[in-house]
Amino acid sequence: MNHWWHRFFLTPRELREMGVVGINMRNARFVLPNNPRRLYELVDNKIRTKALAEEKGISVPETYGIIGNPYDMSQLHKILGDRSTFVIKPARGSGGKGILVISGKEDGMFYKPSGTRLSLDEVKHHISNILAGLFSLGGRRDVALIEYRVTSAKILTDISFQGAPDIRVVMFHGYPVMVMLRASTRESDGRSNLHQGALGVGVDIATGRTIRAIHHGKPVTLHPDLKVRLTGVQLPEWDKILDNAVTCHEMTGLGYLGVDMMIDEDKGPLMIEVNARPGLAIQMANGVGLLKRLQPAAERAAKFKHESREAKIAFSKKHFAAKITEPDTASAS
Hints:
By secondary structure, this protein is of the alpha+beta class. Helix content is 31%, strand content 22%. The chain has a seven-stranded antiparallel sheet with strand order 12-11-10-9-8-13-14. A four-stranded antiparallel sheet has the order 1-7-2-3. The chain has a three-stranded antiparallel sheet with strand order 4-5-6. It comes from Haloferula chungangensis. Keywords: ATP-binding, Nucleotide-binding.
């Protein structure tokens, strides 16, 4: 039988045997029983999440300003000042929607990583869409967060097209169970959203090295634009990344969550956001079903209710170390 990541259609039985978690199973068995609804506000609002992280000593991107009303909008030029790089995002956005990355400024025009030029009025129009709730969860009115644009560590920018890669760590009961790096492509316009054409790169929890990659669900070995190899890349400060992820579990109280981080060239790991409903493409990026890791983590948590963060990380490194290698037949798509 072919490996599951090589095929578009599989039987329910095959999926169960491989431990693949679907949306219904994720919601019924892992999200609803372990994530009390009252805690969602802690992670659905990026401003609150950043405040919590800072209280726990986790580094986050600096906030330049918050736009929540017409008066704030009139002060945008003061907030931006002479800054030529920054990120604008909805406080209640999800899935990378509404994030505007500005990588340069010249002659009064702002530049996106793709080279697209925007005027100040166009930037204001984007912020207006954020305030109207165009990108927010449930279409609720929102506020715009303007913050530091991460200067990603060079070892990671070498495998990402004009955008800073981010790292998603899926946690269960405080145990890191699966990790994926998301690298941008020309198609994704500097964003790390897989649905917009970014790459999903599986990471070995034991070592922090990349082990396999997918693009639009298909295995690849080379970046489609840069033609560089995507596997065998060592993520910097790996132990700190895992420690930060465990801290995010502790600060939110959520049992099942995804923690997104970036690695800045000078500042090191920065927490970007926490997600109470992390997506499932991470399974394809790693070539293994989540259930094969969620069940052992649940059993461990039930047996050792007050295990230290160091012990949790050690358990994950030992039991969830990569056991597969990238397919020899994979090629750049």
